[in-house]
Amino acid sequence: MSTMLTTTEPIVIELDFAASPAALYERWTSAQYLPAWFAAEGYTTIACVADVRPGGAWSMTFRRHDGNHTYVERGVFCALEPERRIVMTLTQVGLGDDGPETLITVTFSGLNNGAGMGTHMRFEQTGLISDEHRAGNDEGWRGCFRKLEHTLPTGDPAAQAAEQEIRDLFRAWSDASAVKDIDASMAPIADDVLAYEHQMPLAYH
User: Fold this and answer.
1) Taking a C-beta distance cutoff of 8 angstroms, is the pair 84, 96 a contact?
2) Whole-number Å distance between alpha carbons of 115 and 157
3) pLDDT, tens digit (0-9, with 9 covering 90-100), for 181-196
4) Residue 94 contacts by C-beta under 8 Å, 6 or more apart in sequence?
5) Residue 20 class from Cβ within 10 Å (0-12 exposed, 13-18 middle, 19+ buried)?
6) CB neighbours of 4 closer than 8 A, spacing ≥ 6?
7) Which pTM value belongs to this model?
């Protein structure tokens, strides 16, 4: 079992993206999007599994473009706050000796800069065991984040804001429905919707 031993400074990368926190969070947690950006330069993702829940495992398998090498990155989701924060472990397997277990924390915060919807992402990786290990991972992540940007939606900021509003409404409805709160579950749909029952079956002509 890998142990987390820190002998060097963590990697900290902060970037701004022209997309919503929801879009960034989805790129980090969806097996639909992860293969498009998580692989290192020169590699392609050939398998991706993500059990997105606290304690759930994730793993990705990468193959070099010439087909002569594969390796795996795997870990566990430690904490998940939709659209706000992800904490996960990461261990590399197949790059010589198995790497140490590192800890990744990613936070997302909305930008209010008058230029439309945007997100500030802060990435931190701890548990790195040498300056060489840190430098290699830092370079690799920056390449991944350039690819991440290309997976994000582009277009009218107003349309992105409308999409975010729909996501917020759906989340409020889903949370209320989960606890069977009828009034709260109807509120996101329309404030003036009235529930009713037919006193007799409807007749069709």
Assistant:
1) no
2) 8
3) 676 666 655 555 444 4
4) 69, 70, 71, 72
5) buried
6) 100, 101, 102, 103, 126, 127
7) 0.71
